[in-house]
Amino acid sequence: MQRAVVELASQRPVSRITIAELAERAGVTRATFYNRYTTPLDPLVAALYADLETGHRLEDQHRTAGYPGPQLLRTAVAEVVDHVERFASVYRHALDDPADRGVYDALVRHFHDYALAYLARATGIPDADHQVMAQFLAHGFAGAIKAWLRVPSATKDDLVDATVACAPTWWAAAELSPADDS
Predict the structure, then answer these.
(1) What is the reported pTM?
(2) pLDDT higher than 60, residue 179
């Protein structure tokens, strides 16, 4: 289902994908779709999140390998940019269709949740409300992605450079306690 919705959302905005055509493309019944999802946006967000999580696992490997903070930040941002490039047509279709705001809302939610988890584990960060900080970072990063997608001549390095330049200095300098996997 996720593969099918990504294929369709690469061709047109997800808001214009019917459940009937998605079910047909995925080789399932509409009832099967409704047993798992509510709208075509649901499996699309699941597919995007799964791909972003792959990048987070790579970031954790780099952190374990001892990458210094600035290099880790740059590498992590580059992984997100790689994700955006893999799904560029999906994100571009969502840019101008008000009904597809859910694609970017999901991206902001993902970055917000990631930032909150990071802030919970970080030492050496400003003493400020983590919810507010996470929202600020999430909307800024998603906004940078939207701006980058609107400029056809902008390169991956342009987005990575701009994002790293705007990242708070404490982000790359923070030490992280081990993740609580319980």
Answers:
(1) 0.88
(2) yes
